[in-house]
Amino acid sequence: MSRCSRNLAVATALVAMAAGSTSAFAADEPANVVKYRQTFMKGNSAHLGMIAAIMKGEVSLTGEIAPNAAALAEMGEMLSANLQQLFPGGTAMGGDIGVETHALPAIWEKWGDFEQVAMRFQEETAKLAEVAEGGDMAAIGQQLGVVGKEGCGACHETFREKD
Ligand code: HEC
Q: Which of 10, 27, 113, 124 has its CA 20 to 30 A from that of 59?
């Protein structure tokens, strides 16, 4: 197969997958949703971890603080926008969905609170992206602390099983 027609074949397959996924939307397998949201959370952790490493001076990539903060703000937006789809009913820990999850039943018992903490995370990561653009290291450090405590920490405290 020539390179060009191979690319065409890949593109066609991707389009077919995309078309299929719209109809599959409502039927996302619980196990896949759980794995996806855990991967999503690892993404949160990766961006936060990279910013922290730079702030601590472990690496001198200061130019990567702002893009990582912007990415984290995007994660915040995605989390709020897709909260229901990432945490559908029936995916609490202790269920029978075939994968390990640490999502506490409190998520569904106190859904309003869960939404609020997700919204707070979105707001604080947006602020972090803003301060990161400014480049004031002290302000970035402070806002990073707020994101960790009022965002990740606050949510995990109530809604994720402790390690
Ligand atoms: C709105 C609530 C909420 C916010 C905000 C949140 N998390 Fe989570 N996080 C969870 C829940 C619930 C789980 C458990 C998911 C599961 O096991 O199905 C989790 C799981 C994780 C995991 C484990 C993933 C795995 O592989 O099992 C990591 C790491 C993580 N979060 C990091 C973060 C970091 C870092 C932040 C902030 C930058 C953050 N989270 C923000 C609710 C949240």
A: 124
